[in-house]
Amino acid sequence: MEDNNNLAEKAALLPREGDGKTHAMRPVSTALALGSAVLYGGAAVSMNFVNKLTLQVFGLANTLLFFQMSAVVLTVMGLKALSVVSFTALNWQRAWSLAPVTLLYVSNVAFALMGLQNLNIPMYNTLKRLTPVIVLVTRAVQTKKAPPRDITASVCLVVAGCVVAGIGDFSFDLKGYIFALLSCMLQAIYLILVEQSGAEKGVSTTELLYYNALLSLPALVAVVLLSGEAVQIPPALARAVTQMGGIALVALFLVFSLFGMLLNWSMFLCTMSNSALTTTIVGVLKGAVATVLGFFLLGGVEFHTLNVMGIFINTLGGTWYTVIKYQQRQRRLAREDLSSPPS
User: Fold this and answer.
1) Dihedral sign computed on CA atoms, order 58, 60, 65, 71
2) Locate the Sugar phosphate transporter domain: which residues (predicted)?
3) Domain range enclosing 138
4) Which of 25, 256, 265, 300 has the most CB atoms less than 10 A away?
5) What is the pLDDT of residues 223-247, one digit of tens each?
6) How is residue 51 annotated by DSSP?
7) CA distances from 129 to 261, 300, 316, 321 (A)
């Protein structure tokens, strides 16, 4: 299951369903296929660590999110000016229709960053895998229909892993757990709302990225001011410069702000150069590698048998869920191919 803790993990400067574009697969070299898979895997593994390091150094999550959204707006506008990407001019009617989902999404990202700030990376990834569980339960209640047994079993493993890992978490941080769970809930509501309302239909990926970032800026300014983060920015910057140095800090901020675009571009390149299956497998391996590395990097984890066992069970359940969803998607595409008339 892909972790969605960054703006650009939901939207990137790439074509997607709804762009009205088709992309024919063409032969690619082995080097490009392998390189794109390695690039995607490396970017996916690195993202949590980049976010965690930035939060450890600077510490003001909402301010960082404001920087991130500002960088996204400036980047998209720059790429549009260079004719690298294209989309229609700012449409306030469309912006208004996207406002509810944008608010949900940005709130999800903000709580995710605050959760990551207070949790170690393995425990954070473990809790974030609860998002599909919330979506699944909500859909079951709405449709009054139980999900397939294999999906239910994989979700039960995810939940059981969270419970076991939480019991063995010696570094338990209540705020971190609350923030991460709120992020899961907001992300689930966002996904359900988009699916049921069709709010994003007819909106290209680049437009969605731009609107999400642009519409979030006023709200983030208000949050930074009302939370008191604004007055904490000068001392936080002073501490960060002392800790890292000015040039290194600027580089870290740039990487933090733009890393999500690299992640999604590499994911797109991996899918186009290989297959959806390869991208799915790399995504699963990324979750496992990030979890293992998280035990040792950026503060690491205080080992406890229950905690390690719970994280393993949770990762196993998440991997199983991803495989099942991929198989379902392939079966659905096969049925659509059979039912579509020959051209």
Assistant:
1) negative
2) 44-321
3) 7-17+30-337
4) 256
5) 999 888 999 999 999 999 998 888 9
6) H
7) 22, 20, 11, 10
Return d(Cα 40, Cα 46) in angstroms, integer.
10
Tokens of 223: 């949050």
Q: What is the DSSP letter of 84?
A: S
Residue-by-residue DSSP string for 250-314 = HHHHHHHHHHHHHHHHHHHHHHHHS-HHHHHHHHHHHHHHHHHHHTTSTT-----HHHHHHHHHH
- The CB density around residue 84, as the number of other CB atoms within 10 Å, is 11
CA distance 195 to 190: 9
Residue at 101 is within a domain: yes
Query: What is the number of domains present in the chain?
Result: 1
Q: How far apart are CA 23 and CA 271, in angstroms?
A: 11
* 111 close to 5: Cβ distance less than 8 angstroms: no
DSSP assigned state of 28: -
Tell me how far apart the alpha carbons of residues 340 and 148 are, in angstroms, rounded to a whole number.
Answer: 26
Our measurement of the distance from residue 39's CA atom to the centroid of its chain's CA atoms, rounded to an integer in Å, reads: 17
Query: Which tokens is 233 given?
Result: 């920015």
- For the chain, how big is the Rg over CA atoms in Å? 20
Residue whose token pair is 């999900």: 147
Residue at 24 is within a domain: no
Contact 211, 69 (CB under 8 A): no
**Measuring CA to CA, how many Å separate 244 from each of 49, 113, 116, 239, 254?**
16, 21, 21, 9, 14
Residue 22 belongs to some domain of the structure: no
**Residues 145-199 pLDDT 10s:** 888 888 888 888 888 888 888 887 777 788 989 999 999 898 888 878 777 655 5
Helix (H) or strand (E) holding 41: helix 30-57
Q: Is residue 203 part of a domain?
A: yes
pLDDT over threshold 80, residue 30? no
